[in-house]
Amino acid sequence: MIQMKVSEKEELPAVLPLDKRFTRTYYQEDSFVSNIRRTLPRMIFADIMENDVLPKLNESDKEFLLYYYTKRKDSTGSYYQLKTIPSRIRKLSADRILTEANIDETGKEFLSQFYHFDKEIEQYVLNDQVTEADEIKILQLVKRRDYYVGNVEKSMISAIFERFPEIPKRDTFFANLYIPPTHKFYSPPNLKHISGMQIVEASRQFGIACNHMFGKVPFEDVTFLLLYLNSEFFQYAKMNMPIKLRAKAKEVKFSKSGYWNYSKLAITAYQENQEITKIEMAASILPLKVYKRLKSTQEEVYEIDPRFRILDRFKNNISIRENGRNIVSTIENISNSGFMVRCSGIHPGDLSTEQQLEFFMHFDIVGFVHGTCILLWVKEDDNNEDTFFAGFRFEEISELDLANVKEAINRYGRLIEDREIQ
Question: Which residues are in the A-factor biosynthesis hotdog domain (predicted)?
């Protein structure tokens, strides 16, 4: 019996968490996808492997790939076969396996769903529609668990094959749900099961990642417009067992540049080879310029611009300057036409209301905002006589900087509901 293990000099990682660029998450710990891959071809013609693939690999990748793909030859020609359940098996070999594994009639009937006998080549041939869950059941039945190829290995093989257009590919993709054990929201000590929201969010990220990795959607200058995400749950998800995700591309459309600009994916979550969740999602991928133009036509027009509180981590990211003096302040709220700050030290009322002051702001991802502003009013803090509130109106600001203000509000602003009627 062949022992399936990688040489001792090469240790494989336990998991391959997906980089946050592919899931479009801000923090790496919020990327819940690992071991992503395309379904692997079980058989590759020898001329493709030997002429188009192997010569272009370094020795390490070549050795790794040939550990899992073995060259075979029969009446149809030469090919490389994935070392798992065979794509083709001679009748004598099949009879020997059935005998050694002591498989009864029920087991034989189960296997007959996946193999048919081809009289022309006198071999059992694997049907096309075999899932990874079916593969595991077959390996267990024939007592060949040592032929199982793990999720990490499959992900690494898939990454190699993605570089070669000559390798036949199917738009079926796999991944595993991965939650860092220190995650503050999804890994509390009192959690007793994997929540439905974890599975939905991981599936949504998986769908986005498929668009980037396999649909060649660029990372920059595009945005995803989610059209719908429908979910169905069938059973409880255990904390101590892994979850596998499978996505099938039901429909894709291509941009002029050749990447997917629309995708409809059917995603299934499995645990212990049982379906626990089904999700269908569709999304359009728009160039950022088109998205901004579309968004601008949907903006509300207000008599008075709504004001928004900015997240605490950005409140100090402001500098207001007057004749070389920096007015120490923090952002209290902001709108499309101006902002309010909390000041300490010199009373801002010493400034002329007609004087233009230079200001700078900075927001993660959005970048810098720069322009001039005019003081509108000053009010003393009722609770602290050394602190003042001051309101400023944007005076001179470029279209780009104003667009950055709007983007910062969209990302990091929270409407002051007790002031604005919505």
Answer: 170-281
Q: What is the pTM of this model?
A: 0.72
DSSP β-bridge partners for residue 373: 357, 394
Last residue of a domain, one of 268, 298, 328: 298
* Contact between 35 and 176 (Cβ < 8 Å): yes
Report the distance separating Cα 408 and Cα 395, nearest Å.
19
Kindly list the distances between the CA atom of residue 374 and the CA atoms of 116, 193, 287, 391, in Å, as whole numbers in the listed order: 81, 55, 36, 9
Distance CA 407, CA 223 (A): 14
> Which neighbouring-strand residues pair with 339?
334, 392
In this structure, are residues 15 and 132 in contact, taking their beta carbons and an 8 Å threshold?
Answer: no
20 within 8 A of 180, measured Cβ to Cβ: no
Residues 368 and 230 in one domain: no
Please check whether residue 91 lies inside any domain of the structure: no
Could you give the CA distance from residue 333 to residue 192 in angstroms, rounded to a whole number? 40
330: which strand partners?
Answer: 342
Cα–Cα distance, 215 to 18 (Å, whole number) = 16
Q: Residue with structure tokens 């099961």?
A: 193
DSSP string across 132-197: HHHHHHHHHHTT-GGGPPPHHHHHHHHHHHTT-TTS---SEEEEEE---TT-TTT--TT--B--HH
Q: CA 217 from chain center: how many Å?
A: 12
Going by C-alpha positions, the residue among 348, 341, 354 that lies closest to residue 391 is 341
409 burial via Cβ count (<10 Å: 0-12, 13-18, 19+): buried
pLDDT per residue as tens digits for the range 9-53: 468 888 999 999 999 998 899 999 999 999 999 889 999 999 999
The pLDDT of residue 255 is 94
Number of domains in the chain: 2
Low-confidence ranges of the chain (pLDDT < 70): 1-10, 128-129, 145-146, 186-191, 294-304, 345-354, 418-422
Helices 151-161 and 59-68: crossing angle, nearest 10°?
Answer: 120
Segments forming the whole domain that contains residue 345: 308-415
Give residue-wise pLDDT tens across range 59-91.
Answer: 999 999 999 998 988 778 899 988 887 777 888
For residue 176, being part of any structural domain is answered with yes
Q: Which two tokens stand for residue 200?
A: 């939905």
Task: Give residue 231's identity as a one-letter amino acid code.
Answer: S
Is 362 within 8 Å of 306 (Cβ atoms)?
A: no
Do 336 and 398 reside in the same domain of the chain? yes
Residues 389 and 338 in one domain: yes
What CA–CA distance (Å, rounded) separates 352 from 344?
18
CATH number, position 342 = 2.40.10.220
